Amino acid sequence: MSVHVEVDIRHPLPSGVDEPLVRQVLEAAARQEGVRGEVSVSFVSDEEIHELNRQYRGVDRPTDVLSFALQEGEPMPGGDDELPLLGDVVVSVPTAVRQAEAYGHSVRREVAFLLVHGFLHLLGYDHPDEASERDMMQRQERVLTGLGLTRETE
After folding, report:
1. Per-residue pLDDT of the chain (154 residues; tens, 9 = 90+)
2. What are the start-end ranges of the H helices in 7-153?
3. Which has fewest Cβ within 10 Å: 34, 118, 139, 144?
4. Burial of 32 (0-12, 13-18, 19+ CB in 10 A)
5. How far apart are CA 85 and CA 30, in angstroms?
């Protein structure tokens, strides 16, 4: 499985977070889930994700990650050799930094966690109840552990 990743950096990235990490994390998630496609990732400020959250979800506060799936409903036209467009993942860099400090692990691990979380939402996973949240957490942890991004090592 393969995933093509476009990265848009609209807020400076912290040390240890770079485009190769983004690609590595999303390729691992795609392999695990057995999917291929194109994903756009944007790193933004709290103010920008707050505005997106308000505009598209009706939630008037910043958040850590947003996903905008493009594969809901009817399949999009395209050739067999074209990768399907999976969607966009938007990560707030300042929130990722704060959460990493609060959870006591690296910003690298936190950003990777948010990327996998957002990617799983693009694939249709959600966490409206305890069982589905546990399933998503297990999928996220498998990807991160496979990359050596555990809480103990980071």
Report:
1. 689 999 999 999 999 999 999 999 999 999 999 999 999 999 999 999 999 999 999 999 999 999 999 876 555 555 667 788 999 999 999 999 999 999 999 999 999 999 999 999 999 999 989 999 999 999 999 999 999 998 765 5
2. 19-33, 46-57, 93-103, 107-122, 130-146
3. 34
4. middle
5. 13
